[in-house]
Design goal:
- Helix content is 40%, strand content 20%.
- By secondary structure, the chain is α/β, with parallel strands linked by helices.
- The radius of gyration is 19 Å and the shape is globular.
Amino acid sequence: MNKFTNVLIKFFLIVNLTLASIAHSQSDSDYLQAIKSPIRIEQDLKIDQTRKPLEMLKFIQPKPGMVVLDIFSGGGYTAQLMNLAVGPSGKVWAFNTRPSQALADRLQMHPQSNLIPVVGTLNELLTDSDGRVDIVTIVNSYHDMVNANSEIQITNKRIYDLLKPGGILIIRDHEAKAGAGKSVTKTLHRIDPLSVTQDFESVGFRKIQEGDFVKISADSKEEHSSKNETGTQGFVFKFMK
């Protein structure tokens, strides 16, 4: 390989790295635009400090046109944020096991035709949607899903089936002590991260990334997740089908 070829290869490597950096910067800008959207409600802005929406969006990497399922969506904090990120060409299903008045109020204030409330069972989730979902998000509620369904692995297999090949599952939750498994999901509303990994890997998922932006070292992990004055230690995992 001659000197000219070496220089040419280095040039293209620099160009590619520069383009990648620009794309990343543009992506961050898009996410910030979603976070600052005027349709987000005041309550969302109050909890942004602990929810860290920019870090979450950068970790998840939603793109325009993607299809998202947000499970145990509650009032729609995550669902609306994801909807703003995937844009009008995308779609977000906000799934709950019973109707959410908070979600209905959110959409009444600022209708979004592609943010769709869904009420159903955990073992079914969506009908006629196998292999059509790009991203599934479960934020601070997998422990609740465990509490609500003694056959949680049926739900987890259903999530796997709903995702496209290469689809992404995001799990964020309140961390229990190592070795606790699922023993404190009801008492402390926390769950052992290892048990989450085992649950989803057993139905075919592969964990590909962990986020460190929800770590709070001062948390003893011995108090209820909603009553810890220092903030709750969290974990966030990305799995791939």
